[in-house]
């Protein structure tokens, strides 16, 4: 089995497309299908042929290219069981605890409802990489559209238990806006202060801030830090239940 090769590229306004490839098995998956043309361009650039679509959730900026790409390539479509009816061209529905074999690379399916009710993440333990869609972002988390704050926090907590060195790919480049908010929640976190500087420099040079690592997010992302005394103090919620603190942070971001 070859190493899992990963290629990320921008799509639409602020989405990321990601291709994963195993050279021995000659299989290639796109994580979500935000936009057909950039996905086809990325496939051509790498010389890879699309064989799989792995969807994280039903939103149009994640499934919009399913039908066209499936029609053109005959690839299979895998997506979240709880929202199977909303995933165009779905062949294989997967849910919590399922394992999905991509050319010998095993992905554990983690349900992370909140942003949508059936949102899933794909965690490739042996490859040390997680594709988390719109659940966790660099310095942010997804808007809670369909689920509850409690569900979103539960899903994030599952991701927080993955090995700290896990590389995290997310669906959007929202990091600059997330950074401006994060610093209001934990202004005294020196590592966050430093990270915000790095992010500004990367974006000023048109460079991506994604992927990130779980380790960095655990130490700087306010949505993963509701148990932090500094965050609780800043919000005037010392000693509060982390779930309640998370909900307050999410509400503040919605109004930021
Ligand atoms: Zn979404
Ligand atoms: Fe999205």
Q: Which H/E pattern describes the elements? A: EEEHEHHEEEEEEEEHEHHEHHH
Quaternary organisation: single chain
CATH class of the largest domain: Alpha Beta
Number of helices: 9
Q: Tell me what the CATH architecture of the largest domain is.
A: 4-Layer Sandwich
What does the average pLDDT come to?
98
**Which kinds of small molecule does this entry bind, naming each only once?**
zinc ion, fe (iii) ion
Helix content: 25-40%
Poorly predicted ranges: none
Percent of residues in beta strands: 15-25%
Largest sheet composition: 6 strands, mixed
Number of strands: 14
| Class per helix and strand makeup | alpha/beta
How is the topology of this model organized?
Blueprint: E1 5-11, E2 15-22, E3 27-31, H1 36-46, E4 52-54, H2 60-63, H3 66-73, E5 76-80, E6 92-94, E7 99-102, E8 105-111, E9 120-124, E10 129-131, E11 136-137, E12 140-141, H4 149-160, E13 167-169, H5 175-185, H6 190-204, E14 212-213, H7 214-220, H8 229-234, H9 242-254
Parallel strand pairs: 3-4, 4-5, 5-6, 10-13
Antiparallel strand pairs: 1-2, 2-3, 7-8, 8-9, 9-10, 11-12, 13-14
Helix pairs in contact: 4-9, 5-6
The structure holds zinc ion and fe (iii) ion.
Residues 57, 59, 62, 115, 134 line the site of zinc ion.
């Amino acid at each position: 089995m070859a190493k899992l090769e990963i290629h990320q590229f921008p799509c639409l306004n602020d989405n990321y497309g990601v291709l994963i490839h195993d050279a021995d098995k000659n299989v290639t998956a796109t994580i979500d299908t935000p936009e057909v043309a950039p996905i086809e361009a990325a496939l051509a650039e790498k010389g890879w042929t699309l064989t799989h679509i792995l969807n994280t959730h039903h939103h149009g900026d994640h499934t919009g290219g399913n039908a066209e790409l499936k029609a053109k390539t005959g690839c299979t479509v895998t997506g979240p069981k709880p929202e199977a009816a909303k995933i165009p061209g779905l062949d294989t529905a997967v849910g919590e605890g399922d394992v999905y074999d991509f050319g010998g690379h095993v992905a554990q399916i983690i349900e992370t409802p909140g942003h949508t009710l059936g949102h899933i993440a794909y965690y490739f333990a042996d490859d040390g990489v997680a594709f988390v869609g719109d659940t966790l972002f660099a310095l942010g988390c997804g808007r809670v559209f369909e689920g509850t704050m409690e569900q979103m926090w539960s899903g994030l907590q599952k991701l927080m238990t993955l090995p700290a060195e896990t590389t995290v790919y997310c669906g959007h480049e929202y990091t600059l806006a997330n950074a401006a908010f994060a610093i209001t929640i934990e202004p005294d976190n020196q590592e966050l202060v430093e990270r915000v500087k790095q992010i500004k420099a990367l974006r000023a040079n048109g460079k991506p801030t994604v992927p990130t690592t779980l380790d960095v997010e655990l130490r700087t992302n306010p949505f993963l830090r509701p148990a932090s005394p500094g965050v609780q103090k800043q919000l005037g919620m010392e000693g509060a239940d982390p779930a309640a603190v998370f909900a307050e942070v999410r509400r503040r971001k919605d109004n930021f």
